[in-house]
Design brief:
Layout lengths: L1 H11 L16 H14 L4 H13 L7 H16 L3 E24 L3 E3 L1 E3 L11 E8 L2 H6 L2 H4 L3 E4 L10 H19 L4 E5 L25 E4 L1 H13 L3 E23 L4 E11 L9 H19 L7 E8 L7 H9 L7 E6 L7 E7 L5 H11 L5 E2 L11 H5 L4 E6 L4 H4 L12 H21 L9 H5 L2
Parallel strand pairs: 4-5, 5-6, 6-7, 9-10, 9-11, 12-13
Antiparallel strand pairs: 1-2, 1-8, 3-7, 4-8, 8-10, 12-14
Helix pairs in contact: 1-2, 2-14, 3-9, 9-14
The chain binds zinc ion.
Length: 473
């Protein structure tokens, strides 16, 4: 309440600078002042941080399609309702369900010892008791694909490819190919199972799970990721001679499991039918508590929306917060949303999502119509005091809103520093303590500012140059 009063006082205070002449890209000084106040108050946010703390503590892991993900939806509905959001609801859909029941990987010979490993999402089960075979090592997926069947048939494939650590996560796309395609490529050549070096960047004995394929519950073969140090161990053993390992993976598979998107809104005023969407995903992998991936993203968008809700007046457009379901196992929530809202995508004036941990935002990309680029620059200039660098107009949006971007919805991508993100991603170590509150709050500051401006300014981010005006230049 104290904060609410402070923001109201600041917002209603007289402007010290004289009103500027308004051009298309000028921001109403009152809107700019309010955005700056939102940025300042974000730095003492409690609501966003409480949201991710509560979600990860009271629910914990939220595997897509599981009973835990269902509890997370109910939890989120109760929280968002209590926070005062409008139109809080679940938009349900069904997904194929996969979960691990048990998994173990161990060296049988020359020296029996366990390897720390985890099944990838969608892995096929091995026969009861597992499979045992000689390991054949490859340094990349392409090396596996080029190898003759005779080298692979009846063996256990091991792809020992390392992931490169980068600030923008660009090493992930390359590294993840072995995760999605090892099982199929190995099975095609008669392999018993596939092991990969974890798709991750830390030196600890933590295996990284993740989906192996995007098109269903069960993939082509049994596949597990071994931790980095265990991949090293296996490689050292192989340098000494033949190594036999045993892989035992048991799974549970169902075809129709419930999932859903949780939606909450701040209804706009005179432009209430126009939507500014900010999203995250509510599901997580099962090993950690999904704090960085993606409890943090949900805390960021909820925290940002709540700062705006605390203003004395609602912005003109509706702000829609979407907590997508079943992202990890194949972007099912994103697809369901695009399907369920296909008729009003033209009413979505801007979309953005937070799904890259809680590191500080260092750049701000957009994907606007060419004539709307002055709006991008205005927002980017406003964000610079937060350490955010203006970036290009080639934003893709992110996993859950990519489908909206491809349908022509303007998007922004606030790029987080993800240098450490893949140290924790999809491991048991993705827990609440990894969130640094100050960095998390800087994210809320960025989201609150651009979301408020998009909702209050009335700007058209799709705007293209006027062909007549361009022709008479
Ligand atoms: Zn994620």
């Amino acid at each position: 309440m104290f904060k609410r009063v402070l923001i109201a006082a600041l917002v209603s205070g007289a402007l010290s600078s004289p009103a500027l002449a308004q051009s298309a890209a000028d921001l109403d000084p009152q809107i700019e002042l309010t955005a700056k106040n939102l940025m300042r108050y974000a730095m003492s946010d409690e609501i966003g941080l409480d949201f991710v703390e509560g979600l990860t503590t009271e629910i914990g892991q939220r595997l897509a399609g599981s009973e835990a993900e269902a509890r997370a939806r109910d939890w989120a509905v109760a929280e968002l309702t209590e926070l005062g959001f409008d139109a809080v609801r679940i938009e349900p859909f069904e997904i194929p369900f996969w979960s691990r029941k048990s998994e173990s990987v161990s060296v049988v010979s020359p020296s029996p010892q366990p390897l720390i490993a985890t099944a990838l999402g969608g892995s096929a089960a091995t026969p009861e008791g597992g499979v045992t075979g000689q390991v054949v090592r490859f340094e990349s997926l392409s090396e596996l694909r080029a190898a003759p069947i005779s080298r692979i048939d009846g063996k256990i494939v091991f792809i020992d490819e390392r992931m490169i650590k980068t600030m923008d996560g660009s090493g992930y796309g390359m590294a993840v190919r072995k995760r999605s395609q090892c099982a199929q490529s190995a099975a095609d050549k008669g392999a018993l199972a596939c092991l990969i070096r974890s798709v991750g960047t830390q030196p600890h004995r933590m295996p990284h799970t993740g989906i192996m394929a995007r098109d269903g519950a069960e993939g082509a073969g049994a596949v597990a990721a071994v931790s980095g140090p265990d991949a090293d161990q296996l490689t050292r053993l192989l340098a000494r001679g033949p190594v036999t390992v045993s892989v035992d993976i048991q799974t549970e598979i169902r075809t129709n499991a419930p999932s859903g998107n949780v939606i909450a809104e701040l209804t706009g005023t005179d432009l209430a039918d126009e939507i500014v969407l900010i999203g995250c995903h509510l599901d997580s992998w099962d090993l950690g508590t999904g704090a960085l991936d993606d409890g943090a993203g949900c805390g960021i968008v909820v925290g940002a929306a709540m700062l705006i809700a605390d203003l004395p007046e609602r912005p003109r457009r509706t702000i829609r917060v979407v907590l997508y379901g079943a992202e990890e196992v194949g972007l099912f929530g994103a697809t369901a949303y695009a399907h369920q809202h296909g008729d009003d995508l033209d009413k979505h004036v801007l979309a953005s999502e937070s799904d890259f941990g809680a590191g500080p935002i260092w750049r701000f990309q957009t994907r606007f119509g060419e004539a709307a680029l002055p709006y991008a620059r205005k927002i980017q200039r406003l964000l610079m005091p937060l350490g955010v660098t203006p970036a290009d107009n080639r934003a893709t949006g992110g996993p859950d809103i990519g489908v909206l971007a491809r349908s022509g919805v303007p998007v922004v991508s606030p790029g987080q520093n993800g240098m450490d993100y893949f140290d924790y991603h999809h491991t048991p170590d993705d827990t609440f303590d990894k969130i640094k509150p100050d960095e998390f709050r800087q994210n809320i500051a960025v989201y609150a500012a651009f979301t408020y401006i998009a909702a209050e300014s009335g700007w058209d981010f799709r705007k293209q140059p006027d062909p007549v005006a361009a022709g008479t230049e």
